[in-house]
Design goal:
Chain A has 485 residues and is α/β, with parallel strands linked by helices. Chain A contains 18 helices and 20 strands. The longest helix of chain A has 22 residues. Chain A is globular, with a radius of gyration of 23 Å. In chain B, strand 4, helix 8 and strand 5 form a beta-alpha-beta unit. The longest helix of chain B has 25 residues. Chain B contains nine helices and five strands; from the N terminus they run H-H-H-H-E-H-E-H-E-H-E-H-E-H. The chains are: A alpha/beta (485), B alpha/beta (215). Chains A and B meet through loops of A and helix 5 of B.
Chain lengths: 485, 215
């Protein structure tokens, strides 16, 4: 069991969205696409790796066509089980197929200010504040970079963001906000400082790296090279497809899974060809384009199905999955946000996705809301409760208590009730008060969530990062900035 | 006779049938029909219908895009004939469009280009990873009314400001208006860097472009 982190452990509910035959057909179609259509890898380093292993490489278009056997063989080297280490080892996250963890969402560009309620551009202080509250919340198992530190220079922004999180939390950090080899090298250096050297970092990777693919059937060169740098250092790296039905992928769900799958497994295969046995993960946040606006929806039945289907693919390749859930398209914490975040997270959880991203953002992962963060944690707590299912045994059948209470009595004063009642779910934000009480105050989840966020930020101050280590991180960042001048 | 042809032209746009649109345009040339009539009495009728249906929620974005592509094919087929006759299609304005340097994200920018072209703008799409000086050179070359700048990353978004500064340095402002877009871009960012136009999606971008040229 991970320390005080509230993960889902050994979910008792089951759901099969894709049959084994369906998965096999998607896999076969995916290999066909990689072999005959190809995937774009706009990085010289990546193209050279592919060439060295016998893939057909077009240097002009940077499209790689790799035989299915090469992809399958490469993926066999990926470790099925490993641990996302935390600076505090009691907060380690074993990715062992028995747990589901949730992280903060990322990477937003605006924040609804906790004090003024006004929406504004995100900055470094927001990253620090959010890291602190996420460190406090047991529901949050690890960090993504929640919002962009737009007051930091572009060449080192991803590093300032990491430092801000490490200053305020000892949980595992997964950055989705580094996309150049130079920044990745510096991030590895910083993580090594905290871990106690390169080998210590390899043994206990306190940082993992998530890169986005460029749908359809492409990658970003800087992202590929950043991932290669991370994998070389032993950091878990993953690739996330956001292929959307009808725009960056086919309109049909199966076809969209094929496109996304081709992007992800071709990139994971590249990493394995370069560094066999490097820890990698599958990542996805697929959706359907909004037919009216063309927008990324951040919710809807297609998203929920993808949420449940993708783990079948990750399981097929024996790699952990980081799955997009929560991340509502709603503009404020409301009815839409509640529906979307509940269903997406339920569907991704019931199949046992290893990591879920994530809590706290609105408007398709663009606007940070502390209220939404706490509401998402409440949703998580409901789903986590459901996943433990119904335990049937002598004690839970409660025949003794039923006999003693008999017809017409009540169970309130029975010992059995006192012994088991704490296993029942208790809300923080649901309104179960008498109607008159509500009518008098007219408050609810949003007000309570805001108050709790304010209270946590005012009172929770984790032990600061060792000033010598912090200064070392600062020097690494300064060197990157110096080099960019 | 030509009435029937015009109806078929409109229908080819509504169906988003690129091959049919091209063939009908060719047919018009062979029959000696004025290309401007083919466009205005034939194809544009289809474009307008699709636009109306879209506004009513009866047709969707892929319908608009396909209609736009069919329209583009028809106009391209008719262009040599227009040149021969010394006529040209009146456009709402010229738009130079691209994704800024360091950024390879294409789809949003391409969608905006298609929508603008379908709405009657002349669009020069420079592609992705476009340096500031190429925007400036193209804007000067074609005497652009609008430069459209796309960026998907908060780090590359900063380049939008650089392009605006480069346009200013080249003396093209304020005659050339600038519109910006991309997931991290907000109205406040547009205002801060002095861009006259911002839209979160392609449909909105058309309205913004129309406003910027006073159409």
């Amino acid at each position: 069991m991970p320390g005080r982190i509230c993960s889902i452990s050994d979910p008792r509910l089951r759901l099969e969205v894709l049959s084994p035959e369906d998965v096999q057909r998607i896999h076969t179609a995916t290999l066909d696409v990689i072999e005959t259509v190809g995937v774009r890898f706009p990085s010289l380093r990546a193209l050279e790796i592919w060439e060295a292993h016998g893939a057909r490489v077009d240097r002009q278009t940077m499209i790689v066509r790799a035989p299915g056997a090469l992809i399958e063989e490469a993926l066999r080297h990926a470790p099925p089980v490993y641990t996302l280490a935390a600076r505090d080892p009691t907060l380690d996250l074993p990715l062992d197929g028995h747990h589901v963890y949730v992280g903060t969402d990322g990477c937003g560009v605006e924040v609804i200010d906790l004090e003024t309620g006004v929406r504004r551009r995100s900055c470094l202080q927001d990253v620090a504040d959010i890291a602190r509250i996420a460190d406090y919340l047991d529901e949050v198992a690890f960090h993504w970079v929640p919002v962009s530190a737009q007051d930091c220079p572009p060449e080192s922004r991803g590093l300032h963001e990491l430092r801000a999180i490490w200053r305020h939390s000892t949980k595992h950090v997964q950055t989705e906000s580094i996309y150049s080899a130079r920044e990745a090298q510096a991030a590895v250096e910083m993580a090594a400082v905290l871990a106690g050297g390169r080998e210590a970092l390899r043994a206990r990777p306190i940082l993992s790296i998530m890169e986005c693919t460029t749908s359809p059937l492409g990658h970003d060169g800087g992202s590929l090279e950043a991932a290669l740098v991370g994998a070389e250092a032993g950091l878990p790296v993953g690739f996330m497809t956001m292929a959307s039905c009808a725009s960056t992928g086919p309109a049909t769900l199966a076809g969209n899974l094929v496109v996304g799958n081709a992007e992800v497994i071709s990139a994971l295969a590249l990493i394995q060809l370069a560094f066999p046995g490097a820890p990698v993960f599958y990542a996805a946040a697929q959706t359907a384009m909004d037919l009216r606006t063309g927008a990324y929806t951040g919710g809807g039945p297609e998203d929920f199905l993808f949420g449940a289907a993708t783990n079948a693919l990750a399981d097929f390749y024996h790699v952990p999955l980081s799955m997009g859930s929560f991340a509502t398209g709603a503009k404020e914490p409301n009815w839409q946000a509640g529906i979307e975040n509940s269903l997406s997270t339920f569907m991704a959880s019931v199949v046992g996705s290893d990591m879920l991203l994530g809590v706290g953002l609105l408007h398709g992962s663009r606007i940070w809301s502390y209220e939404q963060l706490l509401m998402d944690c409440e949703i998580w707590s409901i789903i986590r409760h459901m996943m433990s299912g119904i335990v049937v045994n002598e004690e839970t059948l409660a025949l003794g208590a039923i006999r003693e209470v008999g017809p017409g009595g009540n169970f309130l004063k029975h010992r059995h009730t006192k012994e088991h009642m704490r296993a029942l779910w208790v809300p923080r934000l649901m309104d179960r008060r008498p109607y008159e009480v509500w009518e008098e105050r007219r408050d609810g989840a949003r007000e309570w969530a805001r108050a709790r966020a304010q209270e946590i930020l005012a009172s929770y101050h984790p032990e600061p990062l060792d000033p010598r280590l912090d200064a070392e991180l600062g020097r690494i960042i300064a060197a990157v900035e110096e080099g960019a001048r | 006779m030509s009435e029937e042809l015009f109806r078929a032209m409109a229908q080819s746009i509504v169906d988003g049938d690129i091959d049919a649109a091209r063939k009908l345009a060719q047919q018009a040339i062979e029959q000696g029909i004025d290309p401007l009539d083919a466009i205005n009495k034939g194809f544009v009728v289809g474009v307008n219908y699709v636009g109306d249906q879209f506004a009513k929620g009866e047709m969707f974005l892929p319908d608009l895009v396909l209609a736009g592509e069919a329209m583009k094919a028809a106009v391209a087929t008719l262009e040599p004939e227009m040149a021969r006759r010394g006529t040209e299609r009146k456009t709402l304005g010229k738009v130079v469009l691209g994704t800024v340097q360091g950024d390879i994200h294409e789809i949003g920018k391409t969608l905006v280009g298609t929508m603008l072209a379908a709405s009657g703008f002349q669009v020069y799409d420079l592609g992705v990873d476009v340096p500031a000086e190429r925007f400036v050179a193209k804007a000067r070359e074609v005497d652009a009314d609008i430069v459209g700048l796309s960026a998907l990353l908060t780090t590359t978004m900063l380049r939008q400001r650089e392009v605006i500064q480069a346009l200013e340095a080249a003396g093209l402002r304020p005659k050339v208006k600038v519109m910006v877009g991309g997931a991290p871009v907000t109205a406040s960012w547009a205002e801060e860097i002095g861009a006259e136009g911002f839209s979160e999606d392609a449909i909105g971008a058309v309205a913004v472009a129309r406003r910027l040229v006073g159409a």
